[in-house]
């Protein structure tokens, strides 16, 4: 057996290096493919559809309806519950002081965008991935192409704009509902005068909080759409791959949203 | 004698220019382990072509290449005299609009009704005369007896009716090139005459028809040129 001067078998070093190299190349390749796909979709935002503007417009409105309007019945009670729970815990911790500041830090800066993203991933990202995967597997995308229709406009652009704007709108609704929940809880469980909580929130919040939260919501919307579409379009031509794509898309969306959330918080608040 | 080709507006098209000209095309389908080598082919206007092969996957690959769904790795593809660029799929969409393609896995968009599927292209593009489209659609829908399916989603339509609906959708394009893999499975014997009449119209207008079939009746009516693929090479081109 060939060895180095210390006696470590060289072929084991070679195998480990090869394994690490393959993994690295694989990861870099996947990242490049995703980046190219993202650029391709984002490039649509800089152009106008050459044909079928009515069809594209209709698809965008449908997507906003499915993602935003139909999710309201879920996001409002969820926000009330989350807002109430947060304030209950923080009341015990802080002795009723700085409740407004806590609400801004916890709900508006961090929890609001993340829970909104989670709801959209659970409801819409899974649906979009399943739909596009089915269309890929059952040759419906080819059918659109053979009609001369660009699937990137009628499928991708509509979902990108629809879901991203829906996430931003849902985030605003979530924050308002969560603050209302917090207000109700402070009114019922603390000795604070009615309206004190909202006054504290108004004092604690600043322009950066609003901008950062909206930036996060927008980025989350873009990430969720791009990841869902990517997994949908790249589903190999097997029905059994559809649930795998849906699962991968939802996990990857949430994971990337968490990373971006930390990164944006670091950039603006560190 | 073959009638002179006419365009939709009734103008005569130049007969000399082939609908499709392939020059030394080569491509691979690693999934099905099929490949084409150095295919040179000219599809003359007004002619039908019967494609046969020692390997069905190779014939399917050539049909997909003609439909611009699979891209050649080398060689040139000219559609009605214009060389096609296979660098971006968007550039091929205008060509795809002029190609009708019937193949076993052809599908309709499931979240639209059959009627919406038939109208999708007409409503998507601004340059289609909607009234002429409506008249043509009604005639084809009647010819292929799919009136009852129009308001249903494709999943709720029987397999044969769905295939006839796909056929109607492709015919509504007014294709310059009609590709059909086993068209007898789309129309059955009941609608064969209607289908042949539509094919004759396409040929009369200067289009080309390429088909793969197990049914010998087509050869009698169309007097096709036989194309034979063997081991990925186009080895024979002769009148049948």
Task: Tell me the radius of gyration of chain A.
Answer: 23 Å
State the assembly state of the protein chains. heterodimer
Report the sheet-strand fraction of chain A.
under 5%
Strand order of the largest sheet of chain B: 6-7-8-3-9-10
Structural class of chain A: mainly alpha
Gist?
Chain A has 270 residues and is mostly helical.
Secondary structure: elements and pairs:
The complex is a heterodimer of chains A (270) and B (240).
Chain A: H1 10-44, H2 53-69, H3 72-94, H4 99-137, H5 140-146, H6 151-189, H7 196-204, H8 207-233, H9 242-269
Chain B: E1 20-29, E2 34-43, E3 48-53, H1 56-66, E4 74-79, E5 82-83, H2 93-96, E6 99-102, H3 114-124, H4 130-143, H5 159-172, E7 177-181, H6 184-187, H7 192-204, E8 208-212, H8 217-222, E9 225-230, E10 233-239
Parallel strand pairs in B: 3-8, 3-9, 6-7, 7-8
Antiparallel strand pairs in B: 1-2, 1-4, 4-5, 9-10
């Amino acid at each position: 057996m060939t060895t180095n001067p210390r006696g470590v078998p060289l072929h084991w070093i070679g195998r480990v290096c090869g394994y690490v190299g393959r993994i690295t190349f694989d990861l870099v390749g996947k990242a490049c493919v995703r980046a190219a796909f993202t650029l391709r979709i984002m490039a649509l935002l800089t152009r106008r559809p050459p044909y079928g503007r009515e069809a594209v417009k209709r698809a965008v409105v449908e997507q906003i309806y499915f993602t935003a309007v139909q999710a309201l019945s879920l996001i409002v009670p969820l926000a009330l519950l989350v807002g109430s729970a947060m304030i209950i815990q923080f009341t015990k911790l802080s002795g009723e002081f700085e409740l407004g500041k806590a609400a801004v830090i916890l709900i508006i800066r961090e929890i609001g965008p993340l829970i909104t993203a989670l709801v959209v991933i659970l409801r819409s990202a899974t649906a979009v991935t399943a739909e596009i995967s089915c269309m890929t597997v059952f040759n419906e995308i080819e059918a659109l192409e053979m009609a001369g229709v660009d699937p990137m406009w009628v499928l991708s652009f509509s979902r990108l704009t629809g879901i991203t704007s829906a996430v931003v709108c849902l985030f605003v609704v979530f924050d308002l509902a969560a603050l209302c929940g917090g207000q109700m809880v402070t009114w019922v469980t603390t000795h604070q005068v009615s309206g004190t909580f909202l006054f504290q929130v108004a004092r604690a919040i600043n322009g950066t909080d609003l901008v950062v939260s909206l930036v996060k919501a927008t980025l989350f919307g873009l990430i969720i759409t791009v990841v869902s579409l990517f997994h949908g379009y790249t589903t190999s031509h097997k029905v059994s791959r559809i649930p795998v794509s849906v699962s991968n898309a939802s996990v990857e969306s949430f994971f990337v949203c968490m990373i971006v959330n930390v990164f944006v918080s670091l950039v603006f608040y560190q | 004698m073959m009638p002179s080709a006419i365009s939709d507006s009734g103008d005569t098209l130049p007969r000399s220019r082939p609908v499709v000209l392939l020059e030394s095309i080569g491509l691979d389908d690693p999934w099905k382990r099929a490949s084409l080598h150095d295919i040179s082919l000219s599809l003359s206007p007004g002619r039908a072509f019967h494609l046969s092969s020692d390997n069905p996957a190779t014939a399917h690959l050539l049909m997909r290449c003609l439909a611009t769904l699979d891209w050649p790795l080398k060689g040139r593809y000219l559609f009605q005299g214009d060389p096609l660029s296979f660098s971006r799929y968007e550039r091929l969409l205008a060509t795809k609009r002029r190609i009708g393609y019937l193949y076993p896995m052809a599908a309709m968009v499931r979240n639209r009704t059959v009627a919406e599927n038939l109208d999708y292209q007409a409503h998507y593009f601004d340059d289609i005369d909607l009234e002429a489209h409506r008249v043509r659609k009604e005639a084809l829908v009647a010819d292929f007896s799919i009136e009852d399916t129009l308001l249903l989603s494709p999943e709720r339509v029987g397999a044969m009716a769905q295939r006839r609906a796909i056929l109607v959708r492709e015919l509504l394009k007014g294709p310059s090139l009609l590709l059909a893999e086993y068209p007898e499975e789309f129309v059955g014997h009941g609608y064969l005459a209607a289908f042949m009449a539509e094919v004759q119209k396409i040929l009369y207008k200067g289009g080309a028809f390429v088909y793969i079939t197990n049914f010998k009746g087509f050869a009698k009516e169309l007097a096709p040129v036989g194309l034979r693929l063997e081991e990925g090479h186009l080895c024979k081109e002769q009148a049948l």
